[in-house]
Design brief:
With 340 residues, the chain is an alpha/beta fold. The chain has helices at 43-48, 77-90, 103-114, 131-149, 156-168, 172-180, 184-190, 198-202, 211-224, 234-238, 258-265, 280-283, 285-313, and strands at 2-8, 14-20, 27-31, 54-59, 96-101, 119-125, 245-250, 268-273, 336-337. The relative contact order is 0.14.
Length: 340
């Protein structure tokens, strides 16, 4: 059963929530990226996850179906995390797991670090952990792309010139402002969206939504990128996270470098894809759901073991020890899922 509602936050602002109630033990919150992108691309994954877990989708504060936020200072990572905590409480959940995609990965990371009592496990999908490094990786991909496309598209040189200032700037706002104006055809190539079916690609046009609703997405992004929290080293936050971690990553995705992925492997299990693009939850929803189901089952078992260890020894298990989710007792799963 799927229910939709406008959840009223403590400051009376309304946030859009979808709740997929499947009668399962665990609940998984799906955190969209952007910032300001909306949770509409998560529908397919939410349905596939129904066999394993209850699911909650949220249009973050000020985004699309949520109420417009008139106070720009309220669109921050801390406020979004605070909203998630209110929603969890309203749903009567003691704890839940979270999945963060792209920019949502940074939000999920912060949530797990700031509220460890609420987050039992974390799933990351092509995440932006350190925002500055992630943006530099994406802009670097665009730089190479414009060189490759110079003979094919007349505006490639013009785009390369616009990119130069953003690429050399240390200002996150400038980098995000550049990314917001990149022509769709280049964005499609950069993030691998061309591998998606037409129905999935159409979601990026926000079908069925008014211009006023879509405008809220851009407004939310413009506010969020001014949040000083985004300038903080993401890997310092990662050190504060002790819950089990499952990483989904496409090997060609520009958001996460190999060096950064190696740091995340120290926290949990990695599953690599090839040819899935940035939006793995649209291309690989079924495989991701199976993996997440096994991961959360293992997480429940680890929690029971930790409680027993606490009872026997008077202390919990060592911080940083992570769940060996869907692949038994191996710490790293580097299986590459080849298409075809």
């Amino acid at each position: 059963m799927v229910t939709e509602k406008m959840a009223v936050m403590g400051d009376q602002r309304k946030v859009y929530v979808e709740h997929y109630q499947n009668g399962k033990r665990d609940t998984l919150l799906l955190i969209h990226g952007g910032p300001g992108e909306s949770c509409i691309t998560f529908g397919r994954l939410a349905e596939e996850l129904g066999a394993y877990v209850d699911v909650v989708l949220v249009d973050q504060r000020g985004v699309l179906r949520s109420e417009r936020e008139r106070d720009p200072s309220k669109i921050t990572v801390r406020q979004v995390v605070s909203d998630f905590e209110e929603i969890r409480d309203q749903l009567g959940l003691k704890r839940w797991a979270v999945l963060g995609h792209s920019f949502g990965g940074r939000v999920a990371l912060s949530y797990a670090a700031w509220h460890p009592q609420s987050v039992k496990a974390m799933v990351l999908e092509n995440p932006a952990i350190d925002i500055g490094k992630a943006l530099q990786g994406v802009l670097g991909r665009y730089h190479r792309l414009y060189g490759e496309m110079a003979g094919k598209y007349a505006d490639a040189g013009e785009q390369a010139a616009k990119l130069k200032e953003a690429l050399t700037s240390g200002d996150i706002q400038k980098k995000m402002a550049y990314m917001a104006q990149v022509p769709p055809r280049y964005r499609c190539i950069c993030f691998g969206n061309y591998v998606l079916d037409q129905e999935s690609q159409a979601l990026f046009q926000y079908p069925g939504f008014s211009a006023e609703e879509v405008d809220k997405c851009g407004e939310a992004m413009a506010c969020m990128v001014r949040d000083r929290e985004l300038g903080r080293d993401g890997y310092e936050i990662l050190k504060e996270v002790n819950c089990p971690v499952l990483l989904f990553r496409d090997v060609a995705d520009p958001m996460l470098s190999e060096e950064e992925a190696e740091l995340l492997r120290g926290k949990g299990t990695e599953v690599q894809f090839q040819g899935g693009g940035h939006y793995l939850h649209l291309k690989e929803a079924k495989e991701m759901s199976v993996r997440i189901g096994k991961f959360l089952q293992g997480s429940e078992g680890k929690e029971r073991q930790d409680r027993k260890a606490f009872t026997r020894k008077g202390r919990s298990s060592r911080p940083g020890k992570f769940l060996q989710g869907s692949e038994g007792k191996e710490q790293q799963d580097r299986r590459i899922l080849n298409e075809g």
